[in-house]
Automatic annotation (TrEMBL):
One of its GO terms (molecular function) is ATP hydrolysis activity. Transmembrane segments: none annotated. It holds the Pfam family AAA_5. Residues 64-185 form the ATPase dynein-related AAA domain. This is Aerobic cobaltochelatase subunit CobS. SUPFAM superfamilies: P-loop containing nucleoside triphosphate hydrolases. Gene3D superfamilies: P-loop containing nucleotide triphosphate hydrolases. Residues 6-35 form the Cobaltochelatase subunit CobS N-terminal domain. InterPro entries: ATPase_dyneun-rel_AAA (IPR011704), CbbQ/NirQ/NorQ/GpvN (IPR050764), CobS_N_dom (IPR025865), P-loop_NTPase (IPR027417).
């Protein structure tokens, strides 16, 4: 059993720490522990989403962040936790995560020369008894049996019932729960998110706060990418990044209009910048970063976008 202890905490001002116009004060830990994420000094916080996450930490509200891929949903939660020195454990609800991974399983060990069977607690009972922020990533991709295990945790002060031990575990006062998803439980309507599930609406109703994290404005996105690529922080670099962001924006508009079936996320643009360092040529780096995973019939459209942004054609587009 995990010892139920509370490390020293302090209260921090949201206005002072995050620059958000709010009188909210949030508990934070006075000292950093091993599970606290590292601070990314270049990270740009979205004020509305940041405030939703902070409310989750301050008032123990179950908080779900929804948005397109590459918008930084999980990293947003982690960076808020990093500023608060709040331990954070991120769990990806992919097809390999089982019910036993969450609740625990019987294990066989040798003690004093005898074979004994012991129950090893899983992720949930271990995390519940600690001051930790548990983040379920890709929440809408979880298998049904896994989702129903999670459901009882969504009760605001609900206890976790362990059928294996016939006990009820009371959550630590500083246990918090967050999740990220792409579809808000609507399934793979757009065709972008294969493997996502249509979620039980009664479970969605149990999330206290649901926030949307959308793509940033071009100016904001340009600043973030320049912060990741300081070697381009010059007049030529600024102009280049602006064109790359404009290209990404066109793919998002084209996707919204049904002209193309995939789009460039901010993560894709950052990859494009990184690959440009290796390949030196803007269109070669673009092909390796994005174009080569697009449908052949859509490449002429993307070539047109590229021409509009860079005033040049992509060489050997089908190579």
């Amino acid at each position: 059993m995990v010892e139920n202890t509370t490390p020293p905490t302090i209260q921090v001002s949201v206005r002072e720490m995050f620059g958000i116009d709010s009188d909210l004060w949030v508990p934070a830990f006075a000292e950093k522990s091993d599970l606290v994420p590292s601070i990314d000094s270049t990270y740009q916080f979205d004020p509305e989403v940041t405030l939703a996450i902070l409310a989750g930490f301050a008032f123990n509200r179950r908080t779900l962040i929804q948005g397109m891929h590459g918008t930084g949903k999980s990293s947003h939660i982690e960076q808020v936790a990093a500023k608060l020195n709040w331990p954070c454990l991120r769990i990806n609800l992919d097809g390999h995560l089982s019910r036993m991974d969450l609740i625990g399983k019987d294990t066989i060990s040798i003690k004093e020369g005898l074979q004994v069977t012991e129950f090893k607690p899983g992720i949930l009972p271990s995390s519940l008894q600690r001051p930790i922020a548990l983040v379920f990533d890709e929440y809408d991709a979880g298998k049904p049996d896994v989702m129903f295990v999670i459901q009882q945790l969504l009760e605001q002060n609900g206890k976790y019932t362990s059928l294996e031990h016939n006990t009820a575990i009371t959550p630590h006062p500083l246990f918090r729960m967050f999740a990220t998803c792409n579809t808000v439980g609507l399934g793979n309507i757009s065709g972008l998110y294969s493997g996502t599930q249509i979620l039980n609406q009664s479970q969605l109703d149990r999330w206290n706060i649901i926030a949307n994290l959308n793509y940033l404005s071009p100016n904001h996105e340009t600043k973030i990418i320049l912060a990741k690529a300081p070697h381009l922080d010059n007049e030529h670099g600024h102009l280049l990044i602006e064109k790359m962001v404009a290209m990404a924006t066109l793919t998002r508009q084209g996707f919204a209009n049904g002209d193309i079936s995939t789009l460039m996320s901010p993560r894709t643009v950052i990859t494009w910048v990184e690959n440009l360092t290796f390949f030196k040529n803007i269109d070669t780096a673009f092909k390796y970063s994005f174009l080569n995973r697009c449908e052949e019939m859509e490449k002429p459209i993307l070539s047109e976008y590229f021409l509009r942004c860079f005033d040049q054609e992509i060489e050997d587009i089908n190579d």
